[in-house]
Write a structure and sequence with these properties.
This protein has one domain (3-88): Winged helix-like DNA-binding domain superfamily/Winged helix DNA-binding domain (Arc Repressor Mutant, subunit A), CATH 1.10.10.10. The chain is 63% helix and 7% strand. The chain is built from five helices and two strands. Strands 1-2 form a two-stranded antiparallel sheet.
Length: 89
């Protein structure tokens, strides 16, 4: 378990909200879809997805695609989100 990833999510409510959105979705989502579901500006969603991708918490379905890139939560992302929920209880 990477506690720095847990700390990152605890300190970033937007990143946590985006990760929860992807976790709740049955299918991968594009930044615009995440923006609409979370009421977070698309530019902020895109920035946060970059940070979440670097940490291995989400991944693009096809990294080569530039427009309408779809993202899904990774196993690591699900594990970290579960730990964040435990810490907040």
């Amino acid at each position: 378990m990477k506690w720095n990833d847990v700390s990152f999510l605890l300190g970033s409510s937007l990143s946590k909200k985006i990760l929860e959105c992807l976790n709740d979705s049955k299918e991968p989502l594009a930044p615009l879809q995440i923006s609409k579901k979370t009421n977070i500006a698309k530019s902020n969603v895109s920035t946060k997805l970059g940070a979440l991708t670097k940490r291995g918490l989400v991944e693009p379905i096809d990294p080569e695609v530039r427009k309408w890139r779809f993202y899904k939560i990774t196993k690591k992302g699900k594990d970290i989100l579960r730990e964040v929920k435990k810490v907040k209880e």
